[in-house]
Amino acid sequence: MSAIKAMVEDAASSAKAGAEKAKATAGEKVEKVTTRDPMKKREAEERKEDRKLEIESDERVEKAGRGPEKTVTHTADE
């Protein structure tokens, strides 16, 4: 049961990370469209990449915390 729970939690954290990445990308695109300054466009792109890396790192840390729960052992009776 705990293995299933870990899989569900992994899927939820992946979905959450995907949503956060989408928000970062959308925000960067809006900022790029609304400004004419090339430096601000470059800064927006760098912030988006930094935010995506941070989100991915948070996701890996969250999944690593549940690592031992994922192991499932089967016996001959099963």
UniProtKB/TrEMBL annotation:
<feature type="compositionally biased region" description="Basic and acidic residues">
    <location>
        <begin position="18"/>
        <end position="78"/>
    </location>
</feature>
<comment type="similarity">
    <text>Belongs to the LEA type 1 family.</text>
</comment>
<dbReference type="Pfam" id="PF03760">
    <property type="entry name" value="LEA_1"/>
</dbReference>
<dbReference type="GO" id="GO:0009793">
    <property type="term" value="P:embryo development ending in seed dormancy"/>
</dbReference>
<dbReference type="InterPro" id="IPR005513">
    <property type="entry name" value="LEA_1"/>
</dbReference>
<protein>
    <submittedName>
        <fullName>Uncharacterized protein</fullName>
    </submittedName>
</protein>
<feature type="region of interest" description="Disordered">
    <location>
        <begin position="1"/>
        <end position="78"/>
    </location>
</feature>
